[in-house]
Amino acid sequence: MTLLETWRNLAYETEMNEKQASEFWGGYFNLEQGIYEKILETVDTPVTGTVKELAKKFKVEPVIMAGFLDGINESLKVANPIETLEEDTKVSLDFDKEKLYYNMVGAKADWLYELKQWDSLLSEEKRKQLYKEQKRSSTVVKESKVSRNDPCPCGSGKKYKKCCGANV
Fold first, then answer.
1. How many independent structural domains does the chain possess?
2. What is the spatial distance between Cα 3 and Cα 33, in angstroms, rounded to a whole number?
3. Per the domain annotation, does 8 fall within a domain?
């Protein structure tokens, strides 16, 4: 079983009551925040190494590192082979700042996108812009329904029921 499969079984397949789930995810989010604080401070020199080396560097278990890599993978400049992760797999944490911030907002991870390290990476204006873009992208806009006697939206000038709505 790969590290990612082990992580996903642990995080999503294990039966947990509400208290256990709260403790598990609270502990994970705390570790995740610690890793992000460190990598956001060293953005000029991307962190690389094997999964085992990075786990040791950030003082987490390799399976927790796999969970972290799963979460950050979409924000990396070059994605890691997370589906086949093993402890000796070489990985890179070379992330796109804007994409990472945008994805953190999308994940509703306020404990991450509100980190003070963002102050030196992205201007407040840029962060607000990315926040608005992310929120707008997930807003569902319901189109207004065309009724039978309305002008047809195709622009023919006919009533909808006599034009495009004839087959409805």
1. 1
2. 20
3. yes
Average pLDDT of every residue of the chain = 92
pTM listed for this prediction: 0.79
* Structure-token pair, residue 96: 């796109």
Determine the residue type at 52. Answer: K
Helix (H, G, I), strand (E, B) or coil at 92: strand
**Torsions phi, psi for 49 (to 5 deg):** 150, -175
Q: Is 11 part of a structural domain of the chain?
A: yes
Instruction: Say if 148 falls within a structural domain.
Output: no
pLDDT, tens digit (0-9, with 9 covering 90-100), for 74-109: 999 999 999 999 999 999 999 999 999 999 999 999
Count of all residues that appear for the chain in the document: 168
In angstroms, the CA 50 to CA 72 distance is 16
Q: Which of 145, 148, 154 is nearest to 168 (CA)?
A: 148
Cβ atoms of residues 80 and 69 within 8 Å: yes
Q: In DSSP terms, which residues pair with 7 in a beta bridge?
A: none
Q: Judge whether 109 lies within some domain.
A: yes
Q: What percent of the chain has pLDDT over 70?
A: 97
User: What token pair was written down for 145?
Assistant: 């329904």
134 CB-near residues (< 8 Å, 6+ apart): 102, 105, 106
Enclosing domain of residue 101: 3-137
Sole residue written with tokens 């962060």: 127
